[in-house]
Amino acid sequence: MDEDRWISSRFAPAAERRALIALYALAYELVRVREAVSEETLGLIRFQWWREAIQEIAEGKPPRGHDVCLALAEEIAAGRLKPGALQKLVDGYQTAFLENDRAREPEGWLGLTAANILIPAHNWAGDLQTVAAAYAAARRHASKAFGPIVSPAPKQMRPAIAHYRLRKLYCEGKKPNPFTKRFSIMKAINTGEV
Question: Which domain of life, per UniProt (predicted)?
Fold first, then answer.
């Protein structure tokens, strides 16, 4: 799983933390398709496998024997994750894969879905989308721009997005060590400044 998101998720309440981890584990599996396959057709098969696995869970069928499927099934049953949101995530990663453009990865949608786990109603969606895109670009070294300065994030939402604060370090070309990541994310949790 992604260390940045994992650190942020540690600050969420236990039930919501499990949902964040399940969501991030799915995103990790979808990102890995690009690295795991050598042919487009094989990638499409993997994305379809995840679509069908999520659909089966939504239909109440037993989840497939994959750890991520089992975690998703628990969180969908608890109402913390929505199958439609997960399907949209699969679609976004597939689009990025087909276009061979990591900038098309649905970082904003992933952020919104994570935030929705913690605080279903908020007025921070626009800010979240722009900050998510800046974080993703900086992390991929596709941009040196810090991105927008936004108002502090709502307190309940912070464990889903605190890792976006790391974009400053990534823009500076730094590879933050584990201590620096934790310190930066903790500051975002305390202040809401991402």
Answer: Bacteria
CA nearest 127: which of 151, 110, 146?
Answer: 151
Q: Which residue has the higher pLDDT, 139 or 50?
A: 50
Q: Assess contact for 79 and 100: CB atoms under 8 A.
A: no
Residue 188 and residue 62: Cα distance in Å, rounded? Answer: 39
Residue type for position 129: Q
Listed by start position, the domains of the chain span: 3-191
150: left (phi over 0), alpha (psi -120 to 50) or beta: beta
Q: Is the pTM of this model over 0.85?
A: yes
Q: Give the count of beta carbons closer than 10 Å to the beta carbon of residue 66.
A: 14
What are phi and psi for residue 12, nearest 5 degrees?
A: -85, 155
Whether 43 and 35 have beta carbons less than 8 Å apart is answered as no
Q: How far is CA 58 from CA 44, 79, 164, in A?
A: 21, 11, 31
The arithmetic mean of pLDDT across residues 160-189, rounded, is: 91
Taking residue 125's Cβ as centre, other Cβ atoms within 10 Å add up to 12
> CA 113 to CA 49: how far, in whole Å?
21
Residues 17-54: b if buried by 16+ CB within 10 A, e if exposed: bbbbbbbbbbbebbbebeeeeeeeeebeebbebbeebb
Q: Specify the DSSP class assigned to residue 103.
A: G
